[in-house]
Amino acid sequence: MATINDNYLKLKAGYLFPEIARRVNAFAEANPDAQIIKLGIGDVTEPLPEACRKAMVKAVEDMGDRSNFKGYGPEQGYAWLREKIATHDFQSRGCAIDASEIFISDGSKCDNGNILDIFGNNNKIAVTDPVYPVYVDTNVMAGHTGPANDKGEYEGLVYLPISAENNFTAELPTEKVDLIYLCFPNNPTGATATKDYLKKWVDYAKANGSIIFFDAAYEAFITDPNLPHSIYEIEGAKDCAIEFRSFSKNAGFTGTRCAFTVLPKNLMAKASDGSDVEVWKLWNRRQSTKFNGVSYIVQRGAEAVYSEEGQAQVKELVSFYLENAKIIREKLTAAGLSVYGGVNAPYVWVKTPNGLSSWDFFDKLLQVVNVVGTPGSGFGAAGEGYFRISAFNSRKNVEEAMQRITENLKL
Ligand code: MLT
C-alpha cells in the first residue's frame, strides 16, 4: 500500500485559521441570529484600488486580442513588474537589489513554505515564540522537527521567546542556528524592528554562516520614518537574507494573489560536500520546475500599485486600516487592557484580562459579544494569555466590535 509523509502526523490538529473558522461556524449554526464581527484572520475587507482594477480590466482586453495575447509568462515574473519593484521598493531606499533578484509569486505564505525545498534537512532553525504558524508547520511537514511536546513546541526547533519584556524582539540565540525567521512589522504582535536591532541579526548571520528569512509582508504599515522597510537597508544583508513581500495587505490582494521574494545573487550556502552554492540558482531552478508564474492579468494589477494614482490609493487603504488599529488600541486601553502593536502594524496584541487563557478569552468574546479574534496561544506557547485583534475590517464593524467589548463584556 502507498505510504504517506509521516511528518504530517506530527502536526497539531488544524492550521490555526481553519480551526477558528470551524469554531465560528459551529457557533453561527447554533446561533443563526448572532451578528458576528470577524477580527480574526488578517484578511482585507476594502475594495481593490481603482488603479489596480483598471489595469486588470485592460489586461483582460489584451488577452482578447491576438496581438497582445499572453500564454505562459516567465516563471520569475514579467520584467516590467520586477523592474518597478526593484526601483521603487529597494533602489529608492538605497538597497542595491536588481530586478533579476525579484521573483514574483502567488503569495508570501507559499513562498515561505516553498523556500524550504532548496535547503538541507540538517539546518538548525530558529523561530520566535509567538510566531506566524506557517514557518513552524512547513518545517514540520518537511521533516525538520521531531514531535511536539504538551505545550505544542516541536523538538529540534530553537524557540526565541518574545514578550513585553524584550519589546517583542527576540534576543540572539545562545546556540548556533542556520536558518532564522524574522517578521517585521510583526505578525502577530505588531512589533517593529529598528535598524540597530536588525544589524545585530545581520552580524550574527554573517558570523555564523546563517540565512535570515525576513518576512516584510506588513512593511507598508510602517509610518515611523526611522524604521527600515527592508532588511537590505542594513549593510551586509544581501549576503545573508532572503526577503518576502506581498501585495495582499497593502493593495488588498489576499483574494487576487500576488507577492514576491527577493533573493540576492551573492547569497551563498553550503552543499553537503562543503562547496559553496549560489542560492539564487537553486530558487530559480525550483521556480522554473514547479511554478508557471502569476497570471498576466494579476501582474498588471500589481504593476499599477506603482503608478502615481496606485501609490495614492494604496496609501489611503493602509491609512484606513491603521486608523482602525488606532481605534482598537484606544478603546481597549481605555477599558483597562494592556495593549501592544497596532501603530506601525495592522495587528493589536492584547493581554487577556483576569488571567484567562487565550482560547477561553476567544470563546468568551465569541459567545458574549459575537466578536472573533485570534488566540495568542495559536501562535506558540509563549502567546498563551494573549489575544490578537486584526484591524482589517470596515470602520463600522471595528467601532461596533469595540463598543460591544467595552460595554457588554465584563473585563
Ligand atoms: C494572519 O491572519 O495571520 C494572516 O492572514 C496570515 C496570512 O496572511 O497568511
From TrEMBL:
Pyridoxal 5'-phosphate binds at residues 72, 108-109, 132, 187, 218, 246-248, 257, 292. It comes from the Bacteria. Keywords: Aminotransferase, Pyridoxal phosphate, Transferase. The modification N6-(pyridoxal phosphate)lysine is found at residue 249. One of its GO terms (molecular function) is L,L-diaminopimelate aminotransferase activity. Its EC number is 2.6.1.83. CDD domains: AAT_like. It holds the Pfam family Aminotran_1_2. Pathway: Amino-acid biosynthesis; L-lysine biosynthesis via DAP pathway; LL-2,6-diaminopimelate from (S)-tetrahydrodipicolinate (aminotransferase route): step 1/1. Gene3D superfamilies: Aspartate Aminotransferase, domain 1, Type I PLP-dependent aspartate aminotransferase-like (Major domain). Its cofactor is pyridoxal 5'-phosphate. Involved in the synthesis of meso-diaminopimelate (m-DAP or DL-DAP), required for both lysine and peptidoglycan biosynthesis. Catalyzes the direct conversion of tetrahydrodipicolinate to LL-diaminopimelate. Belongs to the class-I pyridoxal-phosphate-dependent aminotransferase family. LL-diaminopimelate aminotransferase subfamily. Homodimer. This is LL-diaminopimelate aminotransferase. It comes from Laspinema olomoucense D3b. The gene is dapL.
